[in-house]
Design goal:
heterotrimer, A mainly alpha (about 90), B alpha+beta (about 240), C alpha+beta (about 375), B: about 240 residues, alpha+beta, 3-stranded mixed β-sheet, 3-stranded antiparallel β-sheet, 7 helices, 8 strands, about 15% strand, C: about 375 residues, Butyryl-CoA Dehydrogenase, subunit A, domain 2, Butyryl-CoA Dehydrogenase, subunit A, domain 3, 3 domains, about 50% helix, globular
């Protein structure tokens, strides 16, 4: 999965989890928690969707909370995990 | 607005500020100290500040004012009231020969004064607890935000603050025209019931501990139930606030 | 929605036992630790029958409303697996489920479910209780939990703790009590005193790896995901107890005011209808949970409505019995003290409103 696909996937998943279309000006720097108002439940649901769509399994105890800081950091993570899973 | 009966107005202001600074029992002592008869339930049960029996000048039993000398009063255990320095008492008349109570008040006027004075006390208590609540909310966080920044919390704080200001002005208005008192006073008490609950919930589970100061709002409800009760049938509550 | 024959039978049995529970209510409120006179009573036996973790949410709920109509304090004072049973059913292996069942098998033992902490109520991401590796493949539990039902008298319980710094590194551990370095003390609460709400401290409690729940599940589903499913179910049960408490007050006032005037009769009738409305809402929420445990939308609404109604009924209906009714009728005063507890259990009204708004905006679709 390349980075553009990763960002798109994240946008789709966020829209599904939050139940609203993601604002058009979503950028690499958009902060997931404060900017989009995601709480811990939403983060969990998002991860499960990403796992299912991306075909990888989250390493929960090695998951650095900074992964959720921005769209960009999450996209990096998704690319990394899908590459490791061979997708 | 000029108060029709300045002594009641002065008592109300003192009761309010005392409750604000020193709590429920202290506020109630102001009322008892002013010589007002303490209202009781149909079976003579009520709450009074602990150790205050010697200062009570009269009791309201079934619409009649009975001087303290004509009753026996026995204290009963009430754990929640005790946390606020109150005790439950059962009052029984010793004979049928009731002399006019001191202060020359009719039962209805006394009941009306109590309702107004208790309103003043409740306003003082809410002010006291709202200040504590906002401190508490400033120290707690959820999902990376201080609770006091949550819009829902701000709305609740605003509603309580507005009720305090409106209540103070309503008190002045009521003291200036006693004829219109009952429906307005009962309506304000009903509004404070909702504000009490809102402020209680601001503390979360910690406010449900017996040791927490917000218990004064719970005990205040018991006092209101015993001293004021429901509006009389001929004075229904009007324009109840949303 | 109509209940089928089986559910009506469940409801009838629960209703029959309400009077027994009510007769014990004040005693347990005054002395919550003295449960020996009540264990084995018809009322408590009825509670234990419906508190089975595997039971359908709707069935438990139908019965709980009627049992809480007797007394909610007794319902929560009843020995049994309680919420621990719910979470172990979701996250535990068969062996772990058996372990919990065995710990409470004698009918006079309790279990706790410890999530809330002194500084972290609903915000699970701020949980500080830790499961630290002990270097031998197991863990040492460190931290504190607060406002935990039956914590001070339990034989076993489930504790949520973090195994790492991230928001997802949360696991549930099944522990048996007594345990070295575990301290539990009851808290003095304003109401619902039968629930024996407690404070728990863990100062290096040994927890073997086998005690962690969810090891057989994919990593993201081992911790909070399971808890969230349990929360939804329990939320409906809390709503049921709130509705039951409102019914208790309603029944009592109706029984005392046998010939109400026109105004009071109208208030009583209206109250009865409002309670039945909330009951139907709670049933609908329970049906949703049975269809999919993450369907928490109606559960949040039901809890909001039930608590709001209970607080109003318990606070206002006694006035129909005249001034000082709360002092003259200790049961009414107790239920008024009790109903406030439901606000603080399983998420305050503020949390529920946020959930409901979120759910509404999602258009109530997609339940995992």
């Amino acid at each position: 999965m390349d980075r553009i696909e990763a960002v798109e996937l994240i946008g789709t998943v966020i829209a599904k989890v939050l139940g609203r279309t993601v604002p058009g000006d979503l950028s690499e720097d958009t902060r997931l928690l404060e900017g989009l108002g995601m709480d811990s439940t939403a983060v969990l649901e998002m991860l499960m969707e990403l796992e299912d769509c991306g075909g990888f399994q989250v390493e929960v105890d090695e998951l650095d909370p900074r992964v959720f800081q921005t769209m960009g950091t999450l996209a990096d993570y998704v690319c990394e995990m899908t590459a490791a899973a061979g997708r | 607005m000029t108060a029709v009966r300045p002594e009641v107005a002065d008592c109300a202001e003192l009761a309010r500020t005392t409750a604000r600074s020193a709590g429920l029992a202290a506020g109630l002592r102001v009322i008892v100290g002013a010589g007002l008869p303490v209202p009781c339930s149909r079976n003579g049960i009520t709450l009074v500040p602990a150790g205050c029996l010697g200062d009570v000048r009269g009791w309201q039993l079934g619409g009649i004012i009975v001087p303290h000398g004509s009753v026996t009063a026995s204290a009963r255990s009430h754990p929640l009231a005790a946390t606020e320095g109150l005790e439950m008492v059962r009052v029984a008349t010793t004979g049928l020969d009731h002399r006019p109570a001191p202060g020359d008040r009719t039962g209805q006027q006394a009941a009306s004064d109590i309702a107004v004075l208790l309103l003043a006390i409740r306003l003082g208590l809410v002010a006291r607890m709202l200040a504590r609540a906002t401190k508490h909310l400033s120290g707690r966080q959820a999902d990376g935000q201080r609770l006091v920044e949550l819009q829902l919390m701000r709305g609740a704080i605003a509603d309580a603050a507005a009720a305090l200001e409106a209540g103070a002005d309503e008190l002045c208005a009521v003291l200036a025209s006693p004829a219109a008192e009952a429906p307005v006073v009962h309506g304000m008490h009903a509004r404070l019931d909702r504000v009490d609950w809102s402020v209680i919930t601001m503390f979360g589970a910690s406010g449900y501990l017996r040791e927490h100061d917000v218990r004064c709002l719970y005990v205040g409800h018991l006092v209101h139930d015993a001293w004021v009760g429901p509006p009389p049938p001929d004075a229904p509550v009007q324009f109840e606030e949303p | 929605m109509e209940l089928d024959g089986d559910l009506l039978a469940t409801q009838a049995i629960a209703r029959e036992n309400a009077a027994d529970l009510r007769s014990r209510a004040l005693a347990v409120d005054a002395e919550p630790d003295r449960m020996e006179p009540h264990v084995g009573s018809p009322g408590l036996q009825a509670i234990q029958k419906v508190a089975q973790p595997g039971m359908r949410c709707l069935e438990t709920t139908v019965a709980l409303i009627e049992l809480a109509r007797g007394d909610a304090g007794l319902v929560l004072a009843c020995p049994g697996p309680a919420l621990a049973g719910v979470i172990v059913a979701v996250l535990g292996t068969a062996a772990q489920q058996e372990q919990l069942a065995a710990a409470v098998a004698n009918g006079s033992s309790w279990a706790f479910f410890a999530v809330t902490e002194p500084h972290a109520g609903s915000d699970v991401a701020r949980m500080r209780t830790e499961l630290r590796p002990d270097g031998c493949g197991g863990y040492l539990l460190h931290g504190a939990k607060r406002y935990i039902g039956n914590g001070s008298r339990a034989s076993a319980g489930v504790v949520f703790a973090r195994t790492g710094p991230g928001p997802l590194s949360l696991r549930a551990a099944l522990i048996e009590v007594p345990a070295a370095n575990l301290r539990a003390e009851p808290l003095d609460m304003i109401g619902l005193r039968g629930a024996r709400i407690s404070h728990l401290s863990f100062d290096g409690v040994q927890v073997p790896a086998s005690a962690l729940l969810g090891a057989h599940l994919p990593p993201v589903r081992r911790g909070m995901w399971g808890a969230i499913q349990a929360f939804n179910r329990v939320r409906v049960q809390v709503a049921a107890m709130a509705a039951g408490t409102a019914l208790a007050v309603y029944d009592y006032v109706r029984a005392e005011r046998t010939r109400p005037g026109a105004d009071d009769a109208a208030i009583l009738d209206a109250t009865g209808i409002r309670i039945e409305t909330v009951r139907r809402l709670i049933y609908r929420a329970a049906v949703d949970i049975d269809a999919g445990p993450r369907r928490g939308y109606l559960a949040s609404i039901a809890k909001l409505e039930a608590v709001s109604l209970a607080v109003e009924v318990c606070g206002r209906l006694p006035a129909l019995l005249g001034r000082g009714a709360l002092l003259e009728h200790p049961l009414l005063e107790k239920w008024w003290r009790d109903c406030a507890a439901f606000e603080f259990m399983e998420g305050t009204s503020t949390i529920q409103r946020l959930n409901v708004a979120q759910g509404y905006l999602k258009g109530q679709e997609t339940y995992g």
